[in-house]
Structures
1.
Amino acid sequence: MKVILKNLTKKFQSYNKTGKSEVIAVNDFDFEIPDGKLIGLLGPSGCGKSTTLNLISGLEKPTSGQIFFGEDDVTNLPPENRGVGLVFQNYALYPHLTVRQNIYFPLENLKGKEKLSKEEMEKRVVNAAKMVQIDELMDRKPGELSGGQQQRVAIARALVKMPKVLLLDEPLSNLDARLRLQTREEIRRIQHETKVTTIFVTHDQEEAMSISDMIVVMKDGVVHQIGKPQDVYDHPVNLFVAKFLGTPPINVFTGKVAGGKLIIGTEEVMELSGVEDQEVYVGIRPEGFILQEDGPLSCDLKGVEVTGRDTTVVSTSAACLNTEIRSIMNAEIKVDAAQKCVRFALNPNKVKLFSAQTEKSIEFKAVRG
Ligand code: ADP
Ligand code: MG
């Protein structure tokens, strides 16, 4: 089932010492979530992710705009008639019910023509439990399960009604690091198997990037960019998106373009074409630095971190806005940690330019010298 948001806006009134003010939690969202895909809604805390999900589920009413499921306008439908499955961060299982009873619960509450026979309910409950691999734990109570297992039960409970749309609001946040990795792969698998259109909310860029077919990057109630994770990483539309995606983060320098040269500090680091002279932010991905004795960009070496898989050169520069520059090298490259200064050449594909005024991305062509 595709989901279409049309000029969707949600404003909240808030009251503080200085009086009434208005928060635009969701500002004119206008995009389509394709059928059968997993979409990551991504952005910092408070950017409107949960509000967006609550509008789609019907828990919140929009201030203006519309929501469609396929051809149907569901904007004014109550949540129970929308056919959505919901999973939250805190599992929200009934503690006094067993796993089986928890998964049964939404089916027992179906009324009228939606009501199912006992056999059909049993079949659905067993299928949902198998899908999330908790069918061995059916008679336990939530208190006897790990966090990861509880979240599986919550997912089974959301799936048992065979929702048209599955909505997950930071479902992994309460899990420890290892379970978080494992459970996100599980969610990916379940989504692949059920093909239910899924919207996955997270503030964790790595989580969103790793499992989503498409990510929607938001800030302060505004959508900044929508696209495949790799495309958004490679072609961020602005400095915010560039900084939000990637670990370690992109290294941002102040610089300028003058006469077809990109200048950081006093050093000409690259020749380029197609850009007017102007002040810029230069974003360099950690994998974009090439150690080179006569490289044009010089930085002060602070340390070398060897992980086995790769080597991180940690350095600083007065022109860099990050407190330290982290550049990642192939582990075979040996770095003399005793030297004071390191010099880099840059891989132009890993260099992003942004207007110092608008912070919007600037297209350029690198000129090979
Ligand atoms: P996120 O899930 O991305 O952290 P939310 O959607 O919860 O963000 O919140 C978006 C903005 O709307 C925040 O500024 C938040 O304070 C505000 N907000 C959310 N719900 C309410 C509410 N019921 N009343 C007033 N303001 C709210
Ligand atoms: Mg939230």
2.
Amino acid sequence: MNISSDKILTIQDISCVGQCSLTVALPLISACGIETCILPSAVLSTHTGGFSGYTFRDLTDGILSIADHWEQTGIKFRAVYTGYLGSAKQIAYSADIMDRLLTEDGLRIVDPAMADNGRLYYGFDDEFVKEMAHFCGKADIILPNITEASLMVGEEYKQAGYDESYVLGLLEKLGALGAKTVILTGVTYSDDKLGVAVYDTNSRKLDYYFHDRLKVSSHGTGDVYASVFTGAVMRGRSVYDAAKLAADFTVEAIRQTAGDEGHWYGVKFEKALPMLIKEFDTPA
Ligand code: PXL
């Protein structure tokens, strides 16, 4: 049976309520016109950022048998994109899946979703950071925020007030891990602008895209960003154009959410979806 490999796989948890991880990745990458297969690493009642008493059903034990079935069936993916992973074992399994199930020129996209605002998410420790740094070293494209980058390379976390030498230091050390392209999010050199650094570790070419800084901090925006970026790259956009579109989309989703105090747990990406439909309205 011949099965098209014109599809991608994303591995991350399902947080049933909370607008992050798979409940964000699946609709956003699909809206870019890309067939999106999923491998849920865990099921949580909500995400861990601000809720208490959430349930957590670990699905690690099922991961390799799912991969075995896909391999036996001849299923391959043009990209594997990982987000929140719950343990070092899940990182190892994701690396194995990339080795076994990617097409020859398939892309390894890793969002080391484990920290923000200077702190690790609940449940992670230094050992996990080390494993994630090693995993990022094998990736084609990584999308850390400043917190994740500083943790992975052992640099001090700086929220603001730094200059380009701090950012360059992070980028070069991330490159030394082995990653080919780094999209560093949450970069700021002024009070009113926030943006991303796009760094090619081979050529050492560094570009930025800045947008207006919004005065709200929102949950799940890293997942929104990485998902739109992945969809856009898979639709043939350059890394820079994908990074820019993902930033514009994320800003729009935050704008659509601002002012709704009951919606602190995520962003209303649904309201920004027309942007993607318009951008990718021709079939893949
Ligand atoms: O948005 C990242 C994320 C994904 N999944 C879970 C999380 C978080 C962040 O807190 O808790 C379960």
